[in-house]
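Render this sequence as a predicted structure.
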Amino acid sequence: MYIKSILNRVQIYHLDIQRKISVDRLMQIIHLLPDLITLKINSLSFYRSFFNEEFPTTCSIEHASKIKKVYIENMQTIEEINFLLYICPHMEFLNLQCLHGTTIELFLRDMLNKINKDLRLLCIYVSKADDNMIKRLSTMIDNEKLLSNYTIHRELNDIYFQWK
């Protein structure tokens, strides 16, 4: 295989997949890239339930566990996030560009209840982000005790959540 011979000579740390990709194919690629630190994908497709299968291989999961930064440009379902949190247990940064079919409040509540011990920075693009939204989200986080010792700020339409 041509790709394998190239991968024997170079180390790839950052991967940008600009099209929708199946979970199976993504895991095959990750298996070939043991030094991957950053993963940027357009969106994932699930042809079967990932969590009920023996797939992916232990080696693929081991390689994925080295991934620290994940960018999703077009998230379709929360299952995509759950999958990435599962295979990338040491993820420190998650950037989501598009939330379909859910409100930021519902998504954030669900997300903050599932975060791993290493995730410390979450960026969510919200097309209608404003200062009132930041106040509402901060109030929700405080009232429901979803995070402690955190900051929240907005840069244009990106909302950043950072915690210790």
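Summary. The radius of gyration is 17 Å. The CA atoms of residues 89 and 116 lie 6 Å apart.
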